[in-house]
Specification:
globular; alpha/beta; single chain; 11 helices
């Protein structure tokens, strides 16, 4: 465990793998406006560095308890306009994490409550331990999971969202995996090894193709296979085929050698 006082830690290794870690274990990595701003700053660095993979995790027993109590007290004294401005920063965080070009892996070792469920839902892969728990707890204190709802609905499905957002029941890791929020459940001692294996799988793929494919999934989700969609998809594959990485990938495949990005 790290001892630094920085609330968010970021390292990027020589492979281009970024590790972004929430570092407020004493308060279960609860977040406030300052932490949101810091995560946004670090995501901007990850994007600028063209990292190939992001692993989003946290220190301590909990992934994140959601909103910090002090922050909520301050928000209760704000006007509606001030609250909206504040909420827009959380919305920007969710959007930035969701649309980051590189693949993202969420490392959940414990409880993920409130907005933390949104963080998990915004990542491409979620790997969790048997101790992981998820809860859309907002209605218990008279609030709503409004900002994170587009991402959580997409992950859970409308029916499950209606249940768990309205009841605020705790979702154990087995149920979370069944619903599609969690991809892999592994023992705590095997968590980092499993994530490293997934990182290696992702690094074997073309960085350009991965970024384009991630954007592709966002574009085609819930769209009809109409002429607009057909134009987008055919233009994308044509562009990739003639690109430098596309040509390198095909050449390597036919020559039975490893591509340069591996």
């Amino acid at each position: 465990m790290t001892t630094t006082n920085q609330p968010v830690l970021l390292t990027i290794d020589q492979r281009g793998v970024a590790y972004l870690t929430l570092n407020r274990p004493a308060i279960h990595n609860a977040f406030d406006d300052h932490l949101i701003a810091e995560i946004l700053n670090q995501l901007a660095i990850v994007r600028e560095a063209k990292a190939r993979v992001l692993v989003f995790g946290s220190e301590g027993k909990s992934f994140s308890a959601g909103a910090d109590l002090g922050w909520m007290k301050r928000m209760a004294e704000y006007s509606q306009a001030e609250n909206k401005k504040d909420a827009q920063e959380l919305a920007r965080l969710m959007h930035e994490l969701d649309t980051l070009p590189c693949p993202t892996i969420c490392r959940v070792q414990g409880a993920a409550y409130g907005g933390a469920v949104g963080l998990a839902a915004c990542c491409d892969l979620v790997v969790a331990t048997p101790k992981a728990r998820f809860c859309l707890s907002e209605v218990k204190i008279g609030l709503s999971p409004a900002v994170i709802s587009p991402y959580v609905v997409r992950a859970l499905g409308v029916r499950a969202m209606r249940r768990y957002a309205l009841t605020a029941e705790v979702i154990n890791v087995e149920k979370a995996q069944q619903l599609g929020l969690v991809d892999e459940v592994v023992a705590e001692e095997a968590l980092d090894a499993e994530i490293e294996q997934l990182v290696k799988v992702l690094l074997a793929n073309s960085p350009q193709a991965v970024a384009h494919t991630k954007a592709l999934v966002h574009f085609v989700a819930d769209r009809p296979a109409d002429l607009t969609t057909q134009d987008y998809t055919t233009d994308l594959i044509a562009k990739i085929r003639v690109s430098a990485e596309g040509q390198e990938g095909l050449s390597a495949f036919f020559a039975k050698r490893s591509p340069k990005w591996q």
